[in-house]
Specification:
seven-stranded mixed sheet, 6 helices, about 20% strand, about 190 residues, alpha/beta, Rossmann fold
Length: about 190
């Protein structure tokens, strides 16, 4: 495939984006983050991109009210930056199927639980950790998986566990899982090198 050129889609703080950038800078991941795309103009992920001189794009229903135009813009941005791997890292929107078809087998997502448990609609962010604690599971973790047309459904690439501790609240558990996410996401991206 040649050089790994990654587009990261993120809606929030972008610590997973940062983990990928840091891995490319330290030599842990042989590739580069070529574009950052957010549906949220206030996403700190876009600030991180600017700090690293990575092209950042706010693309959403606000910038592109017509879905067809939005898809066109996403495809243009991916193409103009030579992207060959899409990483969804805290992206709160469903990726349009047109993008999934165009980049089939080249899209991954990070999920803060051990899929197939705690996946699917409504299972994002802190909701996931609340559900894990309510179920009294003793183990949680993070999953990187391939993205297809169904929520949290594609083949699992890497999973790593963390313990759930007796005095955890959703925030302490989220922080423990996030540390693991930052380690496995660059590893999973590296699987696309060949
Ligand atoms: C992570 O827990 C990720 O798994 C999820 O949303 C969170 C994003 O964190 N789906 P960040 O924006 O990378 O800091």
């Amino acid at each position: 495939m040649g050089e790994l050129r990654i587009a990261v889609f993120a809606s929030g703080g972008g610590t997973n984006l940062q983990a990928l950038i840091d891995a490319t800078k330290s030599g842990g991941l042989d590739g580069r983050v070529s574009a950052v795309i957010s549906n949220n103009s206030n996403s700190y992920a876009l600030v991180r991109a600017a700090k690293e001189n990575i092209p950042g794009y706010h693309i959403s229903g606000k910038t592109h009210p017509e879905q067809k135009e939005l898809i066109r813009r996403l495809l243009d941005v991916l193409e103009m930056n030579g992207v060959n791997l899409i990483v969804l890292a805290g992206y709160m929107k469903l990726l349009p199927v047109e993008i999934i078809r165009e980049y089939r087998n080249r899209i991954i997502n990070i999920h803060p639980a051990l899929l197939p448990k705690y996946g699917g609609k409504g299972m994002y962010g802190i909701n996931v950790h609340k559900a894990v604690l309510e179920s009294k599971d003793r183990i949680s973790g993070a999953t990187v998986h391939m993205v297809d047309e169904a929520y949290d459904h594609g083949a699992i690439l890497i999973q790593r566990t963390v313990p759930v501790l007796p005095d955890d609240d959703p925030e302490t558990l989220a922080a423990r899982v996030l540390e693991v996410e930052h380690r496995i996401l660059p590893q999973a991206a590296g699987m696309f090198l060949c």
